[in-house]
Amino acid sequence: MLTCKQATRLVSEALDRPLSLRERLGLRAHLMICAGCAQFERQLGFLRAASKRFASGAPGAGDEAEDEASAGNGPDRRDQRPH
To answer: Measuring CA to CA, which residue among 39, 16, 14, 15 is closest to residue 25?
Structure first.
């Protein structure tokens, strides 16, 4: 059985290279019993998809940060608060 450290490494490596059958089976078995590593896999997939959308200039990429800054909720607003 894989440790969480090994599983998260394989989740990350799977983004860069095809895993062997043994690695895939071990990882799938670990992800079925470990909620933390399964969540890590989902988060990594979300980050990869978001990065690809941002890099491609897809509509909506980065709009939330711009909306927050223009609404006064971004970091620029904090600098303007009185001390």
So the answer is: 14
Stretch 67-82: mean pLDDT? 46
Residues 6+ apart with CB under 8 A from 77: 69
- What pLDDT, on the 0 to 100 scale, is given for residue 78? 44
For residues 74, 79, 80 and 83, what is the CA-based torsion angle, rounded to 10 degrees? 130
Selection from 76, 79, 7 nearest residue 39 by Cα: 7
| pLDDT for position 73 | 46
Q: Which two tokens stand for residue 8?
A: 């998260």
Contacts of 48 by beta carbon, 8 Å cutoff, 6+ apart: 15
Predicted TM-score (pTM) above 0.70: no
